[in-house]
Write a structure and sequence with these properties.
Two copies of one chain form a homodimer. The first copy, chain A, is α+β, with helices and mostly antiparallel strands. Chain A folds into two domains: 146 residues, PurM-like, N-terminal domain (60s Ribosomal Protein L30, Chain: A, 2-Layer Sandwich); 167 residues, Alpha-Beta Complex (Phosphoribosyl-aminoimidazole Synthetase, Chain A, domain 2), CATH 3.90.650. Chain A has a seven-stranded mixed β-sheet with strand order 8-10-7-11-9-12-13. In chain A, helix 1 packs parallel to helix 3, helix 4 packs across helix 5 and helix 4 packs across helix 8. The radius of gyration of chain A is 20 Å and the shape is globular.
Chain lengths: 329, 329
């Protein structure tokens, strides 16, 4: 069945089921001019948006529609988590090539619904339009945070520790593997490719950070080097990272040998890990042990004039630049 | 200057000025992972999104970037107005062909900022990505409405009057004119083309409707026939419209002669007027005179089994169908 046959309204009827995971705050979801919801009393509202474009952010030959839907929401939830917030409601606009099978679109929304169900996020509206030259998916997601739970990029103070969640570089390495012909035959490749295709945002950890005493946070979407620069710039500080403390998975280390690149490059310059990096007073680091998944101290906040620096395993320090990441190549 | 030269961060620096028209509620705008704002006390939050795709919703040869930016926001404000709400904050994602000049993107945002300034809406965030095969613009806009000011499509009651704002069909006729070679030489064409390129959403009127006693509302984005069906379906009622009461501009009447089509067709089946249609108790219609711009009673709400009907000037009634409007042709 193709989109022309079902039409826009037929398509909406096919996808609107099971879009509300937590009905408590929803006054009106899909089906009116705008969604209506009750904000949480005393909370700030958060709002973020991300656009995924075919052949830039994904290749249809290398992803299933379900994975793509999951990822389109995941990247937004990561932004909410990085503010210390809890994601609440999403609107999704899709630009669909007219020849796309209806089944593809239904699977795309099934992937979105899965991650939304997992994190109690509601899809409350959207837009479905034709796109003649490629698939485009745009999600905008709201979140909520108590004023004292909010974490900006600008709160880092000299002396703070720099901490990251999880392992870094897996997704970027997974993307490189995915573009090779025979990645499936390497057992180590599967978790890396999964980290790229269906990243798990740190929805549970984000809202805990302020309570632990974190002073700033960012999600790691463009590589740790780039995020360190963003926190340094926004906070007016320097950052010193230690190469041998940056957490790498054993799978990444194995894959990097295959791909012939230094594994650390994926962590520093690769994108889309959707882990969190945050800063926190050194006196509070000791209390992080055993809290909310793997946390690793990777460096410290310094004075602005020290810049963003990477200390190699041999102790040599060098300026760390984000590697000319530019979407408009 | 092209996008490759300035890069994503350079581009953001160019467009982030003057994005906050009403700073009172904004805690953090452009420049962090998500925008942060204070919701109005006791108000419902509204959220809507619309995607505009090159060669589907606009032709770059027939619009300026400023007009396109204006329109991308206008269509969303119209959705907020149709809920009875006041628009507040916007996030805008753009998919940009890499060869697009930077000046084009700056003008695009200038058009957005102009309509945002006009209606005190803040651009608080967004996403800028590459799009290899055409320009894509997606805006998501929040709004606020007091619970007793909210208007859904589902509140129409048999006996209500059906009322529209402004004149209908101008934008659809303007689009047809815009696709002809020599529309500029017809004086009547200018307001019609303007109605298509830079529609003015009913931001002032929307929030007044519930206070007047309106029972349901919709914005007229797909033609009056389609919107009448949406209200009828959502409310479980029928709707009877009178052909000779539907307000048409003199310019539309003149242009329809040139284009060889019945002028009423543009009002009934044309899209993107972004006027409002609402229902209201007959006893309250008398009090609408002189309120908030031109208002015209075009019909009445009937019982569901009567369906959606158009009564011609000669009194003959016939079922009114939305004309197979399908984005996926």
């Amino acid at each position: 069945m193709n989109l022309h046959e079902v039409g826009e309204f037929g398509l909406i009827d096919l996808i609107r089921e099971n879009t509300v995971a937590d009905p408590s705050a929803v006054v009106a979801g899909i089906g009116d001019d705008a969604a209506v919801y009750r904000p949480g009393a005393g909370l700030y509202q958060l709002l973020t948006t991300d656009m995924l474009v075919e052949n830039i952010h994904f290749l249809l030959a290398r992803t299933t529609p379900w994975q793509l839907g999951y990822r389109a929401i995941a990247v937004n939830l990561s932004d909410i988590a990085a503010m210390g917030g809890r994601p609440r409601h999403a609107v999704v606009a899709v630009g669909l090539p007219p020849r796309l099978p209806v089944e593809f679109v239904v699977a795309l929304y099934d992937g979105m619904k899965e991650i939304c169900r997992e994190f109690a996020v509601n899809i409350v509206g959207g837009d479905t339009v034709a796109s003649p030259h490629g698939l485009v998916i745009n999600a905008a997601v709201t979140g909520e945070v108590a004023p004292d739970g909010l974490l900006l990029r600008s709160g880092a103070r000299p002396g703070d520790a720099v901490v990251v969640t999880g392992t870094l570089g897996d997704a970027a390495c997974g993307l490189e593997l995915l573009l090779t012909e025979d990645w499936e035959r390497h057992e180590f490749a599967w978790p890396l490719v999964t980290a790229h295709l269906t990243p798990r945002p740190q929805v549970a950890t984000g809202p805990l950070l302020a309570g632990w005493g974190a002073t700033s946070a960012d999600d790691i979407s463009d590589g740790l080097a780039s995020e360190a620069h963003e926190i340094a710039k926004a906070s007016g500080v320097g950052i010193r990272l230690y190469a041998d403390r940056i957490p790498l998975s054993s799978q990444l280390t194995a894959a990097a040998v295959l791909l012939g690149k230094p594994p650390l490059d994926y962590a520093l310059y690769g994108g889309e890990d959707f882990q969190l990096v945050f800063t926190i007073g050194q006196d509070k680091v000791g209390r992080l042990a055993g809290k909310g998944g793997p946390l690793t101290v990777v460096g410290e906040v310094t004075a602005r004039e020290d810049g963003v620096v990477l200390v190699a395993a041999d102790g040599a320090a060098a300026a760390l630049r984000p590697r000319g990441y530019n979407h408009f190549r």
